[in-house]
Write a structure and sequence with these properties.
165 residues; alpha/beta; Fructose Permease; two-stranded antiparallel sheet; protein-N(PI)-phosphohistidine-sugar phosphotransferase activity; kinase; kinase activity; phosphotransferase system; cytoplasm
């Protein structure tokens, strides 16, 4: 399986993911893993329009994504996995998908989130998921665009939560 990168970005496929990351990674397929979005024809249509020409797009729920990956459906491709938050990625790992690192790019602010960086805001459930991902040996980094310096995400999380992480 050629998973070349995994990213959390609340906007899923948009300018940074579509143009900067996909180009930098030379991805041939973007795989959006999201149970709700995979059921919405309107959202899937929007994601298809944002996907660069020549790059394939899959918008799958967690179970289907894990099934396709574990059954080697994309072995000949360079797959870039994108999710809105850590939960679907943790679910993939718990189903046996090998993900060794996750880049956290953008998680939008809501009334329920805690501010970590300019572009990363987390829910309490996200914090728990990030801790579990770390305990499974997944490297967590924060990097908005390829030209930015990659930072250790758990250090940023701990600082943003006042030392709680």
């Amino acid at each position: 399986m050629a998973i070349i990168a995994t990213r959390i970005d609340g906007r899923l496929v948009h300018g940074q993911v579509a143009n900067l990351w996909t180009t930098k990674l030379q991805a041939t397929r973007i795989m959006v893993v999201d149970d709700k979005v995979s059921q919405s024809q309107i959202e899937k249509s929007g994601l298809r329009m944002a996907t660069p020409a020549g790059v394939r797009l899959s918008v799958l729920d967690v179970d289907t994504a894990a099934d396709h990956i574990l059954n080697h459906k994309y072995d000949s491709q360079r797959v870039f996995i994108v999710a809105k938050g850590p939960a679907p990625l943790l679910a993939l790992i718990n189903k046996g998908v090998g993900i060794d690192s996750i880049n956290i790019g953008n998680m939008s602010q809501t009334d329920d989130t805690k501010h970590i960086t300019k572009s990363i805001n987390v829910l309490d459930s996200d914090v728990a998921d990030f801790k579990e991902l770390q305990s499974k040996g997944v490297k967590l980094t924060a990097q908005m665009v390829p030209g930015d310096e990659s930072q250790d995400f758990m250090s940023l999380l701990k600082k943003g939560l006042g030392g709680e992480a």
